[in-house]
Amino acid sequence: MSATATYPNYSPGLEGVIGGITTISDIISETSTLVYRGYNVHDLASKGSFEETAYLLLYGKLPNRAELDAFKKTLAEEREVPEQVYTALKQLPADTHPMDIAKVGFAVVAPYDPDYAAPATDQAANLRKAVRILAKASTIVGNGHRIRQGLEPLKPKAEHTIAQNFLYLMSGNEPDPEVAHVLDSSLTLYAEHGYNASTFACRVTVATLSDIYSGIVTGIGTLRGPLHGGANEEAMKMIMEIGAVENAEPWIRDALATKKKIMGFGHREYKKRDPRAIYLTVIAKELAVKNNVSHFAQIADILENVMETEKGIYPNVDFPAAYAYYALGIPIDLYTPIFVIARVSGWSAHVLEQLSNNRLIRPACIYEGPHSVEFVPVDQR
Length: 381
Ligand code: CMC
Prior knowledge:
- This protein is an all-alpha fold and 381 residues long.
- The chain folds into two domains: 46-224 and 335-356, Citrate Synthase, domain 1, CATH 1.10.580.10; 231-327, CATH 1.10.230.10.
- It has 17 helices and three strands.
- It has a three-stranded antiparallel beta sheet with strand order 1-2-3.
- Strand 2 and strand 3 (39-40) form a beta hairpin.
- The protein starts with a helix and ends in a 25-residue tail after the last helix.
- The structure holds carboxymethyl coenzyme *A.
- Carboxymethyl coenzyme *A (CMC) binds next to loops.
């Protein structure tokens, strides 16, 4: 008998289990809709900026002009990280993955936060920390990328948005407005997504009354895996392995026949289409054509068609993000760290929500091991 039949209350992977109540975002699978605090993510991505979205997630309402200007000013003031962070990042091996760089960066920056000593339950301090975390994420990832190449970190510019700050530090050049705009929209799409694995892990961490930085480091570690945020990097590697349009159909059919997981496809919550993928696919395919990688768009078409007809499975946001970021000239191993730059806003909103009505998160498990085993002293074993 299967474990789920033996234990009716057991749901592997906690599938379908309700772990909490939230007012931050809602996933409506039947209509392929995602809303952040009531606003459709398509509207936020097309008509707003990532900064407005982050404000919405953190403060619960969209900012008016004065509030947005003040928020951007604070973000600009908080963007730089202490020199000690760069000193620490310079100690890491050159082949350290940028997700580990991000983890180390946030671990080192935590004790330098002016509210470091505030109790975990001080929500005003947590909000200030959340804004600093948001401001610093693109600097840690962007300058972390410079450091691993043996380059010196650059000083962030106050006039840049978060997307521009990342692009400027990544390349050392003034960002192209169109590239910054596409990246900005993708940050909005990546910002928040309910009780996904990294957000849940983050909530578990802070529910012990640990601190928000520990929650963020937990989130980064959880996001890294290829079944979650790491899928955007793996999807790009897959598209590159396929290489040519004529290889795409045999490749995907063989992959399905051998029961391979196709990275960037499928979702626990969306059983139809992922609305973030619907939005980003249009942009990604246009970008691919414009930037001389139109074969990636054609490969994507073939994979999408075969996955839909053979499995009834659709792309998730990580699939179009992969070839969109490639077309924008972003190194592949920075794709998941870009997800971090966006998702720190959602993680922080969840930290604040968790601590506003906290209860330790501690599920039960079923023990199937033995009992009453006699202890034999070590020398007699
Ligand atoms: N390729 C091939 N088959 C798939 C895929 C896929 N990408 N996704 C699901 N399936 C099949 C799976 O093999 C299973 O079939 P069967 O019942 O015949 O064994 C069925 O669909 C259910 O899959 P599951 O893995 O049990 O479903 P889940 O809810 O646990 O998985 C998922 C969700 C995202 C882990 C899974 O779809 C997957 O591994 N996708 C690839 C990795 C990926 O793209 N992850 C990013 C998720 S979205 C962005 C984010 O939040 O990070």
